[in-house]
Design a protein that fits this description.
Elements lengths: L1 H16 L4 H8 L3 H9 L6 H10 L21
Helix pairs in contact: 2-3, 2-4
């Protein structure tokens, strides 16, 4: 599934670049940290709502960008 692969790749990259803990990202997205770990490892597939929550928590300008292969843009924080 290309969209799911793109999601997992972007999720892993964004979490690594976030500069905060996985627990903090999970809390901001409203999911349990164990769920985030399972998503990162590919053990579970996310719901569309969960993808949107994670995209917002990770600062994507548009939640659907978490599914794109490239060209993603993230909000710049000052």
């Amino acid at each position: 599934m290309p969209l799911l692969n793109n999601f997992q790749e972007n999720l892993r990259r964004s979490v690594a670049e976030a500069g905060t803990s996985k627990t903090a990202i999970a809390e901001k997205a409203g999911i349990h940290r164990v769920t985030l770990h399972k998503l990162l490892s590919g053990a579970i597939d996310p719901s569309l709502g969960m993808c949107e929550k994670l995209a917002v928590a990770l600062g994507f300008n548009h939640p659907e960008e978490i599914f794109q292969k490239s060209g993603r843009s993230r909000k710049k924080t000052a």
